[in-house]
Specification:
The chain is mainly alpha-helical and 450 residues long. The protein is 65% helix and 1% strand.
């Protein structure tokens, strides 16, 4: 017996012993089919890995962070060796960067990890949109995932203020103004967000929301999302066949790969790669702390939110768009995404069979990218109507033409395949004689759709 065979046999025996003594098969997650071992099928798992790192790194940062606006000499003095003072929230952040061992790597990786988690969340969302995972029986799983996306963006918004820099303070105030100007809802949200109206009250509310309230909501929604995934299993590949089943049966699942250890090790592999890349980026491009709130040198600081809210801030710069209109547009988009499973009721899941919904998704993606870049390049610059038409109009126009051409090409190809299939079975037979096809063997299995 070769060493590799002995090694694999020994590992199987050890793992069998562990499974037998722990009854792991009873509490392990459901098995998965072999074809899903591709990164595109596990975008949700990558988001979960990013979330796990955020929890661990955030807990370590809490050991040193002080959510206070009171001026302090302790942290700043130890970090800079001078008598300069600043808000305790900013000074504790400064202390983490300059005095805590590996503190700058920890803080930078937590910040970049938040960006990566939101980016992976958008990838997961658009991937699910394009392949139609929201269709029956996964409607509620899609809705819970949409709420998870909203809470995740809320985590980013509340965490942005915690270093208590002038730029984050300005951007948070703009976001709060947008929220408070909502009809009916805004006045109700005011006391919960602003507390007693002081800067300390605002920082305390953002800290509580970021560390306690939103993580609890995130944990509950994540459990519901995962439980629904366990109930329905992973979605089969997108298809043009309206009769295609949307879940695997028990017999098929017995032929799948068990979650432990195969799926778990597969996820851990990508998780370790993600952590390594995150550390590398944080080490090569460490985050530099901007100046603190109230510093006279910060008078010329341009208000700019994090990249995932730049599109909304830029929307307010459009001529005729008030904060109420901007929030209303974002709410319309959210409601559309939330109830998409009940709007697109077709049985086909392949993107080529859903031109209208693909057009809306691609237009939304293009609009988000253009507005994000635009907001980063010209924050706070007012935009006139002609500039809006010349910049935003081509996104929808080109997208409509491309989607229409691809769908037309697919429809023509579909008609040719249909005609070819019919010709295989064409012919006349004597009355009463059994109909026999002159088509080659296996022709009856030819499918009209892919």
């Amino acid at each position: 017996m070769s060493f590799s065979n002995w090694y694999n046999r020994t590992l199987n025996q050890i793992w069998g012993f562990v499974e037998d003594r722990t009854a792991m098969k009873k509490w392990a997650l459901r098995p998965q089919p072999d074809f899903t071992f591709k990164p595109s099928y596990w975008t949700g798992s990558f988001v979960a890995v990013a979330l796990a790192y955020q929890v661990v790194s955030g807990a370590l940062l809490l050991l040193y962070y002080e959510p206070s606006t009171n001026s302090t000499l302790t942290a700043c003095g130890q970090a800079t060796g001078s008598l300069s003072s600043g808000p305790a929230a900013w000074c504790s952040t400064y202390f983490i960067i300059h005095s805590v061992p590996m503190g700058q790597l920890l803080l930078s990786s937590h910040l970049y990890g938040a960006y990566a988690m939101i980016f992976l969340m958008f990838v997961h969302f658009f991937r699910g949109y394009y392949v139609g995972v929201y269709k029956s029986p996964r409607e509620f799983s899609w809705m819970v995932g949409t709420l998870l996306m909203v809470v995740t963006l809320g985590m980013g918004f509340t965490g942005y203020l915690l270093p208590y820099t002038q730029i984050s303070y300005n951007a948070t105030n703009v976001g709060i103004v947008l929220a408070l100007r909502l009809p009916t809802v805004g006045p109700l949200l005011g006391p919960f967000i602003l507390a007693d109206g002081t800067a300390q009250g605002l920082l305390s509310r953002m800290f509580d929301a970021h560390v306690i309230l939103l993580p609890l909501a995130l944990a509950g929604l994540f459990y519901a999302h995962f439980a629904l995934f366990e109930s329905h299993g992973i979605a089969p590949p997108a298809t043009s066949d309206p009769l295609q089943r949307r879940r695997f049966n028990e017999k098929e699942e017995k032929q799948h790969v068990p979650f432990i250890p195969h799926v778990l090790l597969y996820t851990m592999k990508w998780g370790l790669l993600y952590t390594g890349v995150l550390f590398g980026i944080a080490a090569l491009w460490p985050w530099s702390l901007p100046t603190y709130v109230g510093n006279t040198a910060a008078a010329a600081v341009v208000t700019e939110p994090d990249w995932y809210f730049l599109w909304l801030f830029k929307l307010v710069d459009f001529a005729g768009v008030t904060p109420v209109i901007a929030i209303a547009i974002s709410n319309v988009v959210l409601v559309y995404i939330l109830f998409l499973p009940f709007l697109d009721r077709s049985k086909r899941t392949h993107p080529r069979d859903r031109p209208l919904w693909i057009f809306l998704a691609t237009s939304l993606l293009g609009f988000f990218i253009v507005m994000t870049v635009w907001g980063g390049e010209t924050p706070g610059v007012q935009i006139t109507d002609p500039t809006i038409a010349y910049t935003i109009g081509p996104i929808f126009l080109v997208n409509a033409v491309v989607v229409a051409l691809f769908h037309y090409r697919y429809y023509r190809s579909y008609q040719r395949r249909l005609a070819a299939r019919r010709s295989l079975f064409a012919g006349s037979y004597p009355r009463g004689a059994p109909a026999r096809s002159s088509a080659p063997a296996g022709a009856a299995e030819v499918k009209v759709v892919d």
